[in-house]
Amino acid sequence: MISSTQTPAAVSAEDYLRYAADRVNRALEELLPSEQAAPSELHKSERYSMFAGGKRLRPALCMAAYEACGGTGDAVLPAACALEMVHTFSLIHDDLPCMDDDDLRRGRPTNHKVFGEAMAVLAGDALLVQAFELVANTGNAACVSTLARSLGSQGMLGGQVVDILSEGKTVDLDTVDYIHRHKTAALIAGSLVMGAQVAEAPAPIVEGLREFGFKIGLGFQIVDDCLDLEQTTETLGKDAGSDLENNKATYPSLLGLEASKAKAVALIESAVTDLRALPIEGAALEAVARYIFTRVH
């Protein structure tokens, strides 16, 4: 395990993700209300999903951007933890019967299967509120604004709306691109921007990392769509084939698997080219970005 005093830029993506996840998990353990604190059922529901596994990709990207821009120490941890909280909120709500109606997430029963629909809704709501409280307490207004925009009607929620309205319909590639850029890529781009903002990076670097994030975020979702068709439920840890079953608008449904994979590869290469043009130490960011396109799940 890499200690927090080591420079992780030269290690593999897997090592960096472990390093980031270890720091974030320890911080989340302290920041989240305990299961014994009232209302205990709500806090049990939150913790059930928060500690269900996952690679902590968004916090890792936030931390890598912070370090690439010269940041040191633990100042980035509130932003990194808030990102994982809002990501988990989105997964809890996405799995609900009124959304995707999924039974499994990360190899475990989804939150509403264990705690009921009402408690799952409230647990997601609580994580969202706590995330904003966490970032607001840092006094970094720019990070609060970035998080809000990444999640709102111009970000994740806007993408989710178009995703729902597109189910069972014939849509074009522009619509699928809109869904992916907003529902998935917006928060991934926001993760990089928040890391750079905590490090007080200049505006051109912040914007460069935003564009890098949108490209790898779109590629991430294309890969996810491909895996949904190619992998088993056991491998993915969630219901495989659910996109097809729900008539979701995806790249493979329009372009086919091979063309979709080629698009993902083109996105990562373009993103890496852009990253290397920035005056930052981006080795860890590049490693994690490339990992996105070689992951199993």
Describe this protein's structure.
- It is a single chain.
- This protein is mainly alpha-helical and 297 residues long.
- The chain has one domain (11-292): Farnesyl Diphosphate Synthase (Orthogonal Bundle), CATH 1.10.600.10.
- 69% of the residues lie in helices and 1% in strands.
- Strands 1-2 form a two-stranded antiparallel sheet.
- The radius of gyration is 18 Å and the shape is globular.
Summarize the structure.
The protein is mainly alpha-helical and 297 residues long. It has helices at 13-31, 40-50, 57-68, 77-94, 111-115, 117-136, 141-151, 156-166, 173-198, 203-230, 233-236, 242-245, 251-255, 257-276, 283-292, and strands at residues 104-105, 108-109.
Topology, element by element:
Blueprint: H1 13-31, H2 40-50, H3 57-68, H4 77-94, E1 104-105, E2 108-109, H5 111-115, H6 117-136, H7 141-151, H8 156-166, H9 173-198, H10 203-230, H11 233-236, H12 242-245, H13 251-255, H14 257-276, H15 283-292
Antiparallel strand pairs: 1-2
Features:
297 residues, mainly alpha, Farnesyl Diphosphate Synthase, two-stranded antiparallel sheet, 2 strands, 69% helix
Largest sheet: 2 strands, antiparallel
- Strands ordered across the widest β-sheet: 1-2
Q: What coarse outline follows from CA principal-axis ratios? A: globular
Q: Write down the Rg.
A: 18 Å
Number of domains: 1
Give the terminus-to-terminus CA distance: 22 Å
The proportion of residues in beta strands is under 5%
The CATH topology annotation reads as Farnesyl Diphosphate Synthase
CATH class: Mainly Alpha
